[in-house]
């Protein structure tokens, strides 16, 4: 089950389309869909989560809490819409494209992909691109 929650004045254009897409991402990685909660928020909201749970006093575009057990993918994915907008401008890409990248990124972490090394980051970016095309 995929849920969308809004802690800011943003809303997805077509939740059903995004829900089906996230399900396809999970299926494409041979995983089973559990409960995925996307929480769209602003910088202030996500900064507080970053400080409270990760002890990081920095802005970020995404924080994910992974409750995956085996192949059952579950978790809470917090996304700062403000950060995504700024990143889209910085990378000269469309906001919706960058939003899809971040949404896929959270799911890919749950599927076991990392991004701490250059090699892992390159694989993660490749997987993000592969999943965006599935939209």
Task: From the structure above, extract its key features.
alpha/beta; Collagenase (Catalytic Domain); four-stranded mixed β-sheet; 51% helix; ribosome biogenesis; cytoplasm; metalloendopeptidase activity; hydrolase
Task: Give the arrangement of secondary structure elements.
Elements: E1 2-6, H1 15-28, E2 32-41, H2 43-54, E3 62-66, E4 72-80, H3 81-91, H4 95-110, H5 118-133
Parallel strand pairs: 1-2, 2-4
Antiparallel strand pairs: 3-4
Brief summary of the model shown:
51% of the residues lie in helices and 21% in strands. The chain is α/β, with parallel strands linked by helices and 135 residues long.
Structural class: alpha/beta
Determine the fraction of residues in helical runs and give it as a percent range.
40-55%
- Rounded Rg: 14 Å
Number of contiguous helices: 5
CATH architecture annotation? 3-Layer(aba) Sandwich
Strand order of the largest sheet: 1-2-4-3
N→C terminal distance: 18 Å
Mean pLDDT: 96
Q: What's the CATH H-level homologous superfamily?
A: Metalloproteases ("zincins"), catalytic domain
SSE string, helix = H, strand = E?
A: EHEHEEHHH
Characterize the quaternary organization of these chains: single chain
Q: How much of the sequence is in beta strands?
A: 15-25%
Model regions low in confidence, pLDDT < 50 over at least 5 residues: none
Count of domain modules: 1
Q: What would the CATH topology be?
A: Collagenase (Catalytic Domain)
| Overall 3D shape | globular
CATH class term = Alpha Beta
Q: What is the strand tally?
A: 4
Structure, described:
- The chain is of the alpha/beta class and 135 residues long.
- It has a single domain (2-133), classed as 3-Layer(aba) Sandwich (Collagenase (Catalytic Domain)), CATH 3.40.390.30.
- The chain has helices spanning 15-28, 43-54, 81-91, 95-110, 118-133, and strands spanning 2-6, 32-41, 62-66, 72-80.
- The two termini are 18 Å apart.
């Amino acid at each position: 089950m995929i849920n969308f929650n809004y802690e800011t004045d943003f809303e997805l254009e077509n939740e059903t389309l995004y829900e089906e897409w996230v399900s396809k991402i999970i299926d494409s990685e041979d995983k089973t869909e559990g409960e995925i909660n996307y929480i769209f928020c602003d910088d202030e909201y996500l900064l507080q989560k970053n400080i409270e749970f990760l002890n990081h006093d920095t802005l970020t575009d995404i924080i994910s809490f992974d409750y995956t057990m085996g192949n059952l993918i579950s978790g809470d994915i917090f996304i700062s819409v403000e950060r995504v907008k700024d990143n889209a401008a910085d990378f000269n890409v469309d906001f919706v494209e960058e939003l899809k990248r971040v949404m896929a990124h959270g799911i890919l972490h749950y599927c076991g992909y990392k991004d701490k090394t250059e090699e892992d980051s390159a694989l993660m970016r490749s997987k993000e691109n592969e999943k965006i095309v599935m939209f």
